[in-house]
Specification:
The complex is a heterodimer of chains A (about 950) and B (about 300). The longest helix of chain A has about 80 residues. Chain A has about 950 residues and is mainly alpha-helical. Chain A has a three-stranded antiparallel sheet with strand order 1-2-3. Chain A contains 39 helices and three strands. Helices cover about 60% and strands about 10% of the residues of chain B. In chain B, strand 2 and strand 3 form a beta hairpin. Chain B is elongated. Classes of the chains: A mainly alpha (about 950), B mainly alpha (about 300). Chains A and B meet through helix 37 and helix 39 of A and helix 6 and helix 7 of B.
Chain lengths: ~950, ~300
């Protein structure tokens, strides 16, 4: 252990090397994907930058401290800011000691290489850091386990507040209550003022508390460090980012926890929101970049990040424990806690499975994710095996494994997050957990995981368990799962011999890379990656390629599942009513909803809504969901002419017709809205259906200033649409767009034809009426009584014909014409979503162009050797890289949504058409039968003419 | 109102029930009608080509039978208005039912006309009918002389004499009745023509719709798309059937009630003309009587009183 402290000097070079590697990685990442950029961008975006400056000096101090023996370690811990640099250094140190250089290198390599994406880098970095920290601490100080535990605990703690207690217990045994308390405190207070509380703790506890506080600080620092990193050398920045990633996880965890309380559905829905929120929060943490993307997709990144840190920590701790005899005692103590730990540890796992089953039933949409999760779980298992192998070689394996674990975990993490979030706290009992797992709810993988965990717990030395326990306790349930996996791996590895370390590392890396790469459909990608990983751990490339293909299929599956999901809600728009007089009059409609959905207050409710409210609803929905590529069903257009007729003409038949048409259109509009799974969740929709009084919708008046602005916007949109030349990379979208265009044309044609048909029918009805009248007159003028009678009968029949024709015209109108009109509008919305996608693409391209320019300037500066400007250029580059990543991800996301929506739209279309056509044909059949009846009744009259 | 159909007279060498206009041939700017009639003696058939001018010639010859007593009181079967190959809108309107559907109704109308002429007790005696039906040479290419039924002058006189009160109550009521019936029949025919025309328009709309639906078929193996395409095709077939249905409805309307109303309306016109001719005679008679009274100044006042 002492050697580690001594070796502190070497760490620097190591760290530097790492830095270099990181930089390379970063560059590679940048080139590969934009995600890497986000780190910088996010860091720069937030106020952290200022903090970073302050933090920067501290790192140096910490490094100095680190060089010093164990006691120093505590100090550095106390200095949160220092953590980054020191961590790296210590890492290099500990690693070099127990593991030796090779370990570090492979780890780095695996990280850098496999993770072409920046995500991998940050993940690896965080892992390294945490691992290093605990390792250093134990090494330096004989304290060993306790220290490590607190450290790990605090780290974990911020993430998962509830589990802290178990962790504390084990800690308390070896360390004493004092230690525990500080740790608890920091835990309880996630990242905020941890230092204050530790200070209260006693001397012994003080170090720990400090450590804890440091850890917590570290988290804070991480963010800070990120900022500082940005300012400091890129290498540092990278490290910082890695550290930051840790912070992100914590945030994520918190978020997740909060979200977990909510139903899965909400989570799913919220996932995107949470993801967005997380990015913002984590925005400071460049390392978070991964998490945001992950969060969005499936919060894979977050989980990965979380898992990664936890895993490395665990590994390290386990390694340390193994290395250190002192640790063993701790482990010995642990046994008691083990039960707790086990219960705790299993719970997370259990929770995962438990969550899985619930997730599936609640929402079909989730099913996909669940599947992905399962897939991931499988992957993780596969990954675990390699990891185990790696573990066979303690040091190297650990690092390599963590990476692999990360990748795997990332996949799993998504699943876990969702699953865990829901049931997490609930399922503490092993049996219960195992039961659900066995229940078949979970995939074999999950079961495997559990078994593995169980195995690990039993065979693995108490040390490991203790470590795991601690970590579990500290960490949230999700983390616990992660740890469990990690522990499992460790345990397995320790008994077993080394195996293909490189191989494992490589696959894991690719998997991670693939996951990161496929930010678009994170879930789908995760699934694919998991599948690919499971199937071929060795063929990383194949997995990567697969990821892109699979998302589509996964999406489609999702679509189908969604389709199957019937929302039990019906909306009727009835009783159009004219309110007011003159030109200020408006039509109000009764919106009656009948539902069994729990989200509504009652089963049936009615509200009065005026037309502009409908428009207002659409405006809101379109604003919220439109940019993400969602096809928001459009309401009928505002018709000044029609409304004027209504306002002026009292009983004008065309006005009645207009109102009826509009009523039908509004009804169908609302039905489409509530039939849309994500729109139904929108609070505005709920409000619209439920609330008695709606705030008057503004900006819907056709002639208002807002209306004018809207027109202006539309015009500019149209112009920009003309100017955007998108070279479509996705054949699917190209084909779909063409289909939509041609369908639009055809529908327009059809609509015109149906309208003319309706016109003809109306004309026929009119003509029949006048014919009936003239026949009646002829009949009255006719001398021959029989003929006269027949003629008047004929007139009667013709009168009925007229009514039939009129009904038929109405049928044509409401069943066909309106249907097609609806679809013309809907196709407009579909095109709108395509446009949104194009806009996202344009933003991405623009950002890329800017980035290119920035790079060029950087190159110039480099050549001109102007370091002071160089830094700024680099900052800008990182900023734009982040932007590019973000835009690309946005684009991918929009693409995925559009894809999904279009598929849904098509399905709906077919169903709708079928329904309407059936209705139409039935009505026509009826009218024809009626017609035959009339004529048959007339026949004897005609025969009676004689 | 219709003229009483009398027993076929033997003065025609063909069976009046077996006169058919089998075909209408468009020959440049003129329409040529193929008139086929069965010989009473034996099994032969007469095939003659007649243009509208020939029909007109026949009609004028029928009108011009000055030597025939009581010819003025005959309700001449109405000859349809001359049809042009490329009729103007106004001409089509004038043709009414006969103007639509590729001369088929017109052919039927011509056939009906010939049959009515041939079966008419008085008219069928006219040599012109025989010539028209049997002579292979087109008879009426030379301009027919003017006759008493100059339409222009008639129209002028009509206005003057229309309101002339009849001395006979029967004729007076018949005239009044004829007047109303003519009007009503005409409107009814027109209205019904509208109905038929609209039906035809709907048929056309159906056709278009059906083809448009066929175009809506989207390629692709997607089950949804296939279903949609199937729906489109089936619906298109449905509309096609509906088109057929409404087309035949329109056709039937045209050939039954439509043509019936049309002929009725023309016959009403013919009757009106006949009655008008009588009115003219009446007016002539009255005028002559007046002149005669004037020639006898002594009784002038008494006659005047009597007449007025």
């Amino acid at each position: 252990m002492a050697t580690s402290s001594e070796r502190s000097p070497p760490p620097f070079p190591d760290s530097e090397e790492q830095d270099v590697l990181f930089t390379e990685d970063v560059v590679a990442q940048d080139s590969d994907e934009d995600e890497g950029e986000e780190f910088f961008a996010t860091a720069s975006n937030e106020s952290l930058l200022t903090e970073l400056d302050t933090t920067l000096p501290s790192p140096t101090l910490s490094s100095g401290v680190l060089t010093e023996p164990p006691s120093d370690l505590i100090e550095p811990l106390s200095e949160p800011l220092i953590l980054i640099d020191p961590i790296i250094k210590p890492l290099s140190e500990p690693l070099s000691e127990p593991l030796s250089a090779p370990l570090i290198e492979p780890a780095i390599e695996t990280l850098g290489e496999p993770f072409s994406t920046p995500l991998s880098a940050p993940l690896s970095a965080p892992l390294m850091e945490p691992a290093i920290k605990p390792a250093i601490k134990p090494l330096d100080e004989p304290l060993s386990a306790p220290l490590i535990e607190p450290l790990s605990a605090p780290l974990i703690a911020p993430r998962s507040v509830p589990p802290i207690e178990p962790a504390i217990e084990p800690l308390s045994e070896p360390l004493s209550a004092a230690l525990i308390e500080p740790t608890i405190e920091p835990l309880s207070e996630p990242l905020i003022d941890p230092t204050i509380e530790p200070a209260t703790s006693q001397t012994e506890s003080s170090p720990i508390s400090e450590v804890v506080s440091e850890l917590s600080d570290d988290f804070v620092d991480l963010t800070n460090s990120e900022v500082s990193a940005v300012e400091s050398a890129t290498a540092e920045a990278e490290k910082d980012t890695t550290e930051i990633s840790l912070d992100d996880p914590s945030d994520d965890f918190v978020e997740i926890l909060g979200s977990e309380t909510e139903s899965h559905q909400e989570e799913v829905v919220a996932n995107s929101a949470a993801v967005e929120a997380t990015p913002e929060e984590s925005g400071a943490t460049s390392g978070i970049k991964n998490p945001p993307s992950d969060d969005r997709t499936g919060s894979d990144l977050k989980q990965e990040v979380k898992e990664v840190p936890s895993v490395p920590i665990i590994d390290i701790s386990s390694d340390l424990s193994a290395l250190i005899t002192k640790d063993l005692p701790v482990s010995g103590k642990v046994p008691d806690p083990l039960d707790d730990l086990l219960s705790e540890a299993p719970p997370p796992d259990v929770k995962v499975p438990a969550t899985r089953p619930p997730a599936q039933p609640p929402i079909d949409l989730f099913d996909d994710e669940d599947n992905d999760l399962f897939m991931e779980a499988k992957q993780t298992t596969s990954v675990k095996q390699p990891q185990k192998n790696l573990f066979g070689e303690p040091d190297e394996d650990i690092f390599g494994e963590p990476l692999g674990a990360f990748a795997k975990k990332a996949d799993q993490a998504i699943k876990r997050e969702k699953e865990e979030t829901v049931p997490a706290k609930g399922g503490n009992d092993w049996s219960a957990a195992s039961g659900p797992l066995d229940g078949g709810i979970k995939l074999g993988d999950s079961a495997d995981i559990f078994t593995e965990e169980a195995i690990t717990s039993t065979p693995s030395v108490p040390t490991i368990n203790t470590v795991n326990v601690k970590t579990n306790g500290v960490h949230s349930e999700e983390e616990a799962d992660i740890f469990a996996e990690a522990t499992v791996e460790l345990s397995l590895d320790s008994p077993r011999n080394e195996r293909k370390k490189n191989a494992t590392a490589a696959p894991s890396a690719p998997a991670a890379a693939s996951t990161s790469a496929t930010t678009v459909a994170a879930t789908a990608a995760a699934a694919s990656t998991s599948a690919s990983a499971g199937s071929s751990t060795a063929s990383s490339s194949s997995s990567a390629s697969l990821t892109k293909i699979q998302p589509a299929s996964a999406l489609e599956e999702l679509e189908e599942e969604e389709e199957d999901d019937k929302f039990d809600i019906g909306v009727l728009v009835t009783d159009p009513e004219k309110i007011g007089d003159g030109m200020n009059a408006y039509m109000a409609y009764k919106v009656a909803t009948q539902t069994t959905l729990p989200m509504f207050r009652s089963k049936t409710f009615k509200v009065m809504r005026r037309f502009s409210d409908f428009l207002g609803l659409f405006e809101k929905l379109n604003e919220k969901h439109g940019p993400s590529g969602c096809i928001v069903p459009p309401p009928p257009e505002k018709s000044i002419l029609g409304m004027t007729k209504v306002k002026v003409g009292k009983d004008d038949p065309s006005a009645v017709d207009f109102v009826e048409r509009r009523r039908g259109a509004l009804e169908r509009y609302l039905q489409r809205v509530v039939a849309h799974p994500s729109l139904l969740q929108d609070p505005d929709v709920r409000e619209f259906l439920e609330r008695d009084e709606l705030p008057r919708a503004v900006s819907t008046q056709a002639l208002s200033g807002a209306g004018f602005l809207k027109m202006l916007n539309k015009a500019t949109d149209a112009v920009s649409k003309m100017t955007i030349k998108m070279n479509e990379s996705d054949v699917w979208f190209e084909e779909k767009l063409q289909e939509v265009e041609s369908a639009d044309q055809q529908y327009r044609k059809l609509h015109a034809l149906v309208e003319s048909l309706v016109g003809h029918r109306k004309e026929l009805s009119l003509n029949t009426a006048s014919f009936a009248k003239s026949v009646a007159m002829l009949g009255s003028a006719e001398d021959n009584t029989a003929l006269s009678r027949a003629l008047s009968q004929l007139a009667e029949v013709e009168d009925k014909m007229e009514q039939l024709h009129q009904d038929q015209a109405a049928n044509d109108t409401f069943n066909f014409s309106e249907l097609i009109a609806d679809y013309i509008r809907l196709l407009g919305a579909v095109r709108g979503s395509f446009d949104q996608r194009m806009k996202a693409w344009q933003r991405w391209q623009d950002a890329q162009t800017v980035l290119q320019k920035k790079r060029e300037t950087e190159a110039k500066l480099l050549w001109a050797n102007k370091p002071e400007k160089l830094q700024q250029a680099k900052d800008e580059i990182s900023e734009w890289e982040a932007k590019v990543t973000q835009y690309e991800r946005e684009f991918d996301r929009v693409s995925a949504t559009v894809r999904k929506e279009v598929l849904r739209f098509e399905k709906e279309k077919t169903r709708n058409f079928k329904k309407q056509i059936m209705k139409y044909l039935e009505s026509m059949l009826q009218s024809q039968q009626q017609l035959i009846k009339y004529w048959e009744a007339f026949l004897p009259e005609a025969k009676a003419i004689a | 109102m219709m003229e009483e159909v009398k027993e076929v007279t033997p003065n025609l060498s063909v069976s009046c029930h077996n006169i058919n206009v089998t075909d209408v041939v468009k020959d440049g700017e003129t329409l040529t009608f193929v008139v086929v009639s069965k010989k009473l003696s034996g099994t032969g058939e007469y095939h003659v080509d007649r243009t509208y001018d020939d029909f007109e010639w026949l009609q004028q010859h029928l009108f011009a039978q000055e030597d025939e007593p009581g010819i003025q009181g005959v309700i001449f079967p109405p000859l349809p208005v001359k049809a042009h190959v490329n009729p103007s809108v106004k001409a089509i309107k004038q043709l009414g039912f006969l103007g639509i559907d590729q001369w088929e109704p017109y052919r039927v109308a011509m056939e009906t006309y010939l049959r009515q002429v041939a079966s008419h007790a008085i008219l069928s005696k006219n040599k012109a009918v025989e010539i028209f039906l049997t002579s292979s040479d087109p008879p009426g290419r030379q301009k027919a002389r003017k006759n008493i039924f100059n339409r222009l002058s008639q129209a002028m006189e009509e206005l003057r004499k229309e309101s002339h009160k009849d001395v006979d109550d029967f004729f007076q009521t018949e005239r009044d009745h004829n007047l109303t019936l003519t009007g009503y029949t005409k409107t009814a025919a027109e209205r019904f023509l509208d109905v038929v025309l609209t039906e035809q328009k709907i048929a056309v709309a159906f056709t278009h719709f059906s083809t448009a639906l066929h175009l809506c078929v989207e390629p692709g193996e997607d089950p949804d798309k296939e279903a949609f395409s199937k729906v489109c095709v089936k619906l298109s077939e449905v509309f096609d059937t509906m088109k057929t249905s409404i087309t035949s409805v329109a056709e039937n309307n045209l050939s039954t009630l439509g043509l019936g109303l049309d002929m009725d309306s023309r016959y009403q016109e013919a009757e009106k003309e006949m009655l008008f001719r009588r009115t003219c005679k009446l007016v002539e008679l009255e005028a002559a009587s007046r002149n005669a009274e004037r020639a006898k100044p002594g009784k002038k006042a008494a006659v005047a009183v009597l007449l007025c």
